[in-house]
Amino acid sequence: MATILVVDDEMGIRALLSEILTDEGHTIELAENAAQARASRERLRPDMVLLDIWMPDVDGITLLKEWGATGLLNMPVIMMSGHGTIDTAVEATKYGATAFLEKPITLQKLLRAVEQGLARAPVARPAGMGTPGISMATPQMGGINHGGFRSEPSLTVEAAMTGGLGLPEMQVDLGPQSEQSFDLDRPLREARDAFEKSYFEFHLARENGSMTRVAEKTGLERTHLYRKLKQLGVDLSRNKRGSLA
After folding, report:
1. Are strands 3-7 and 48-52 parallel, antiparallel or unpaired?
2. Beta partners for 106?
3. Which residue in 83, 123, 173, 176 is a FRET match for 204, CA 20 to 30 A apart?
4. Counting beta carbons within 10 angstroms of the beta carbon of residue 159, is it exposed (0 to 12), middle (13 to 18) or buried (19 or more)?
5. pLDDT tens digit string along 44-83?
6. Count of CB atoms within 10 A of residue 175's CB?
7. Domains of the chain, each with CATH number or no CATH
């Protein structure tokens, strides 16, 4: 698995991303500002960096530019922000970011972006040369062209980072129903696991995949809930959101 550096000034986000990615088998290093990120980047040579844009000392875009200008951008960097704009996304792409995740970050988008980013083989290059694997072509969408992207209400920051397409979404079915039948002619543990899986699938579907609301409804802490869902084999990609927030 990979060594991933998570850079974010919010302790809760660092902890949650670390929990999830560690469960996926990755080795996680945490940094809360640019100074710590520089030191960790030099010491660990991570396979990937998850980098928040808005930090109190040096913002993520500035750090991204710095790494690119000094030949240190030889790993995929995924930008994160809760207040990003399309212009910010385009700028991040220009200076070497491979993807953009808007907060609150969904589980499936996080895991998919990490998987896709690690599958790429970036090479260090001068700042401003663009990023291999990310389309900067104008998407075939309605609206007015602004700097290579057509603007319309549904165009998100993530869409701008991938040429208007965004990270691919999974198809969503109607989800489990509240009334179900269970095969009781089986060992107690199997029957209990089957019930719990259906129980959590029902609440995930009803809450549109929001981990926060499901945690509140079921009385479980979020990280414990995430572990429980993985243990039961609940397919989180079936839910449209599956939000970490």
Report:
1. parallel
2. 243
3. 83
4. buried
5. 999 999 999 999 889 999 999 999 999 999 999 999 988 7
6. 16
7. 3-161 (3.40.50.2300), 170-245 (1.10.10.60)
